[in-house]
Amino acid sequence: MSANYTSKNLYCSRWRENVDVVDGVMHLNIKKEKRGGQDWTAGSIWTRKKFKYGYFECRYKYAGGEATNNSFWLMTRGGEPTEGKKFEIDINEGHYPNEVSTNIHNWSDFTIMPNGRKKHASYNEMFFFGTKPDYSIQLEIPVETKKIRFTSKNSSRFNVGEFRVYGVNESGEYPTVLSQTADSDIDGLVNYARAKNVSITSSGSYKGNSSENKLIDGNPLTAWTTQQEGDKWVEFTWDQSITVGCIQFTNGWKDQSKTWHSLVSNYKIQYLKDGEWRDISVLDASKENDFSEEYHTYGLEWDENELVFYFDGKELRRSKNDFCYSEAPIFLSLALIKWHGVLKDDLDGKSMKVDYVKYYQKK
Q: Which residues are within 8 A (CB) of 229 and not within 5 positions of it... i.e. 6 or more apart?
C-alpha cells in the first residue's frame, strides 16, 4: 500500500505516484512540486500483511543529499493493541551520507510538558560509518540531562575542536559547524557548553598541557589535544538540567592546503540519565562511505524479549523489549526532514532505491 499524507515536521508530502519499480528496483522518488500544502513530494509504502517476531531485513541505497530520511520500519496501526503498547521500531532512519539511526517509540504513553506539548518515551541510538572533520548531530527527540560526555578508544592522540551543546531550535536550524561566529549566527540559540554553570573534566591532555578550554573558546580550529595512551574522554557537567537539541564538534587538524588529517575513527557521545550513560551518537569507521552510492543491509531480530539491530549482518544495538508485543506492517519511506541538514534544489529527481525486503520466522 502507498501512503498519501503530509506532516508539519516534514518539508514534503508523500504520494503513491512517487513510488515505482525500475529494472526490479523500487524507487521512492523526490520531486520539487507543490502538493499537499508542501513544496516537495516523496514516496512511502507499507505492507497489507502484519508481522510479529522474526528477522526483518532490507537492502537499499539512500537518496543522495542532506535532509533526507531513508527509512525501513515497523509501526502498529489503529487503536491500542491487546498486547503491549502502540509502538514504532525504526530499523533504520538513514541520513546521508553514512548515518544509521535506530529508534524505539512508545506511542501509547504520553507526558504533558510545561509548554503544553505531549512527549512520548523514545529510545534512540545513531551510528556513523565514515570520518569527517565536522559533526552536527541533531536530535529528533531532545534529551534532558546534567552531563554530556565524548569518549573514544582511538589508539593515538587526536584533536577535538569547538564542542557545542545547543538547546532546541524549533525551526530545526543550527549553525555551520566550522563557523567562527556560530554562537551568534542564530538569534536566541543557547550553547550550554559555554554557560557559566558548566564544568569540564577530561582524561588528560598531550604532555600534560591543559587544553580543555580550547573546546569552548569560540574558534573551531583550536583544539583540546588528548593524551597519547589509554581511553580518551571529556565530560561536561551542569549544576541543573538542560534540554539538548543538537551537539556539534570538530576533530583532526587542517594543513595549509586545507586538507584535514588525523580524523578520529571512533567515538561515543552520551548523556547521563537515571545514573546510566546512554548513547546519543556512535562512530566506528574504517573508511569513508557514501550510502547513496552503495547498497547496504539493515536488519532487526525481534522477539518477546529483545530487539537486536544489524548493519550488513553485524550487530549494532541490542535492547530489551518492554512493550513491542503485537503485529505491525513493514514500512519503507523517504521523507525530507527539518532536523538533518539543508534542503537543496538538487534533491529533485533523486530517490531511495530498494533492492529487496525479506522476513524470516522461526518454525
A: none
